[in-house]
Design goal:
Helices cover 35% and strands 17% of the residues. By secondary structure, it is α/β, with parallel strands linked by helices. It folds into three domains: 2-11 and 28-207, Thiamin diphosphate (ThDP)-binding fold, Pyr/PP domains (Rossmann fold), CATH 3.40.50.970; 226-393, TPP-binding domain (Rossmann fold, 3-Layer(aba) Sandwich); 408-582, Thiamin diphosphate (ThDP)-binding fold, Pyr/PP domains (Rossmann fold, 3-Layer(aba) Sandwich). It is globular and about 70 Å long.
């Protein structure tokens, strides 16, 4: 078995962790130890997936992976979902993982099947989503010969996987699967690829469970160093303008209850990144919103004028920091992350903490209680006065289009209000993604799914499909744009055939909206290649397209229809529903910090305005 190095290792000076254990089950108890039995490599693969607790595999058969599909037919524990494109399989696995917290699984054949997984694998890598991708490969004697449908998928994906494995011995298939699930779901989660040649799947071998895992060097640090925790607590207790900067790692660590306790103990304001929406309730008075390029003015200002940033499971992404050299210039930095490679990568940490977010926050709570017992914490009244003034002066809002067309923000706001905080919202990438992050109120973790780091158009429909399969009793709304929707809407046929009743709101503004917004602002309104024709010529007709794929199709183009069509969609639970919301073409996302500029300058419809006057600081 040939492997690449795992993505992360121990932090320097960290306590020596326990040796790795098998991955947590993905829905069921691991199979007990079994006596060796004679099987083919393909049978061994299926048995290993069953044993590790896999429930659903999204994939498409093809020549090199075909041997695995024969025993898959006999499995009573694995459900296979036949997608229409391998990209759909990868995003569905990611949606399943993001909604459930389990490891998602996708499968493809060699060559083009495997390379079609590259985008969702990279997407999962950027957003730290635990998926295992299983690919067929040409037979061992043909490797390196440019054989039919050969591609070095291990080499191709090495930079975008946490780990990848080429299995050359059929006896090592159980070990490869056990290690893949363990690596994907522990430490900083991420994608793992297992590539298996066709003749390895066909060969005779023995299956025994559990296998011995051999992962030298992979010992993620979960428990933080006590001295660093105490230093962080001292800084928090003494800060005059602290901000808790919460990233997606808090959700992945299942640390939201602990986060709330810490927030209320410190009294500090909280910002939740695009990947952390729902980690802390929007309704809580200490939540000042989402920071970054399209964040609230209060959230951007809080970070920019803070004297202490406590980053929890966040990575100082450029969409949050803006121009890095001018970001939060007066702030000391406490940076806690499970991946030591992220610490001080973009912004030097004054107090670096390597550890699992749940353990970090739990220990911070205890350390803060000690600080409070030993002295009075800093009064934050003046700080909250500034932030509350900003919240009142610059609330999120929108104007209705001057031409009387439907407001996209209103549509998304009404979906959120009618479906409620217990529904799952899955967005594509672009203007509709930002409006969904802004105008839906998130109260619970794992209710907001999107492609943050890679920004993958086409993510939403298959990810919503995977999320609905993970949580079949939940209401799942896919909020997509007319551009994104046309990239992967073929998976609606999968949803219809597999009885996966997602609800899709196509925010149809007739354009590649975010690109058009940039052309409006930075390219003198020269709208090159952004008109999709979905307004001017109604090509395609999304209502008819939905019906052709076995879904219920609806259309809405006026304000007085919005609630009726949303409520009608909410009543349909036996098949997918698609609503074509025909909205104004010129709506723009505000606020906005232009790429590469300072967070001190926030663009709004009324122009650019400094966040604070000098007298306010």
């Amino acid at each position: 078995m040939t492997t690449a190095s795992p993505r992360s290792g121990p932090a320097p000076g960290a306590p020596k962790p326990a040796p790795p254990k098998p991955a947590p089950p993905a829905g069921r108890t691991l199979r007990p130890a079994s006596e060796p039995i004679s099987v083919t490599g393909a049978q061994s693969l299926v048995r290993a997936l069953e044993a590790v607790g896999c429930e659903i595999v999204f994939g498409i058969p093809g020549g090199a992976i075909l041997p695995a599909y024969d025993p898959l037919l006999d499995s009573t524990l694995l459900r296979h979902v036949l997608v229409r494109h391998e990209q759909g399989a990868g995003h569905a696995a990611a949606g399943y993982a993001q909604a459930s917290g389990k490891v998602g699984v996708c499968m493809a054949t060699s060559g083009p099947g495997a390379t079609n997984l590259v985008t969702p694998i990279c997407d999962a890598h950027m957003d730290s989503v635990p998926i295992v991708a299983i690919t067929g490969q040409v037979p061992r004697p043909m490797i390196g010969s440019d054989g039919f449908q050969e591609a070095d998928i291990r080499g191709i994906t090495m930079p975008i996987t946490k780990h990848n494995i080429l299995v050359l011995d059929p006896a090592e298939i159980p070990q490869a699967i056990a290690e893949a699930f363990h690596l994907a779901g522990t430490g900083r989660p991420g994608p793992v690829l297992v590539d298996i040649p066709k003749d390895v799947l066909q060969a005779k071998t023995t299956f025994h469970w559990p296998p011995e895992m051999k992962l030298p060097g992979y010992r993620p640090t979960t428990r933080p160093h006590g001295k660093q925790i105490r230093e962080a607590a001292k800084l928090i207790a003494g800060a005059h303008r602290p901000v808790l900067y919460v990233g997606g790692g808090v959700i992945k660590a299942e640390a939201c209850a602990e986060l709330r306790a810490l927030v209320e103990l410190t009294g500090a304001p909280v910002v939740t990144t695009l990947m952390a929406r729902g980690a802390f309730p929007d309704s809580h008075p200490q939540h000042v919103g989402m920071p970054g390029m399209h964040g609230t003015v209060a959230a951007v200002a809080a970070m920019q004028k803070s004297d202490l940033l406590v980053a929890l499971g966040a990575r100082f992404d450029d969409r949050v920091t803006g121009q890095l050299s001018t970001f939060a210039p007066d702030a000391a930095i406490v940076h806690a992350d499970i991946d030591p490679a992220e610490i001080s990568k973009n912004r030097r940490a004054d107090v670096p903490i390597v550890g699992d977010a749940k353990e970090v926050i739990t220990e911070l709570i205890e350390a803060m209680r000690v600080e409070h017992a030993e002295g009075t914490p800093t009064d934050l009244t003046a700080w909250w006065s500034q932030l509350n003034a900003l919240r009142e002066t610059f609330p999120l809002g929108y104007d209705w289009p001057a031409d009387g067309s439907l407001s996209p923000e209103y549509v998304i706001e009404r979906i959120g209000q009618i479906a409620g905080p217990d529904a799952l919202y899955v967005a594509g990438v672009g203007q509709h993604q930002m409006w969904a992050a802004q105008f839906v109120r998130y109260e619970n973790p794992r209710t907001w799914l999107n492609s943050g780091g890679l920004g993958t158009m086409g993510y939403a429909v298959p990810a919503a499909m995977g999320a609905k399969m993970a949580l079949p009793e939940a209401t799942v709304w896919c909020i997509d744009g007319d551009g994104c929707f046309q990239m992967t809407n073929q998976e609606l046929a999968t949803c219809a055939i597999e009885n996966i009743p997602i609800k899709v709101a196509v925010i149809n503004n007739g354009n590649l909206g975010m690109v058009r917004q940039w052309q409006n602002l930075f390219y003198s309104e020269r709208y090159s290649q952004t008109d999709l024709g979905t307004h001017s010529r109604r090509i395609p007709d999304f209502k008819l397209l939905a019906e052709a794929m076995g879904c219920v199709g609806m259309r809405c183009d006026s304000r007085d229809q919005v609630d009726d069509v949303i409520n009608a969609a909410m009543e349909i639970n036996d098949k997918p529903v698609v609503i074509d919301f025909v909205v104004g073409a010129d709506a723009q996302v505000w606020p906005m910090v232009a790429a590469g500029t300072s967070n001190d300058e926030v663009m709004a419809a009324r122009g650019i305005r400094p966040l604070f006057d000098e007298d306010d600081v």
